[in-house]
């Protein structure tokens, strides 16, 4: 059966498009960060009453979530270890356990950071940063990768 000229043109175009598509590398969309396996540095805690607590320096305020449900926290001159659970819909619960009790220098937000970690409720990622909303809409922590 002979194809008409227009049918041959269409068939050739379809063949060319299919062949070209097979040669194109798969799209590499930006990778969504993982909660675990990263040391997250606190940047700030924005409270719902407009109080802004800035981590200065950020490397003194960190959270590291592990694949086995542990969380290691540095809160300025203190350290804490705890447990966390997360769900696919972004819910998170953190329960901190043993914490050192050193007296941190004036201007430290260590105590507020530890309290905020215990109040963690929902997490999400935006522009590569980790955000953790606190219970009862009381505020949001913002972290970046160290």
Brief account:
The protein has two helices and nine strands. It has 146 residues and is an alpha+beta fold.
Describe this structure in words.
By secondary structure, the chain is of the alpha+beta class. The protein has a single domain, classed as Beta Barrel (Lipocalin). The protein contains two helices and nine strands, in the order αββββββαβββ. Strands 1, 2, 3, 4, 5, 6, 7, 8 and 9 form a nine-stranded antiparallel β-sheet that branches. The radius of gyration is 24 Å and the shape is globular. The N and C termini lie far apart (67 Å). Residues 9-29 have low confidence and may be disordered.
* Morphology: globular
Helix fraction by DSSP (H/I, runs of at least 4): 10-25%
Instruction: Give a count of the beta strands, DSSP E runs of length 2 or more.
Output: 9
| SS-derived structural category | alpha+beta
**What would the CATH topology be?**
Lipocalin
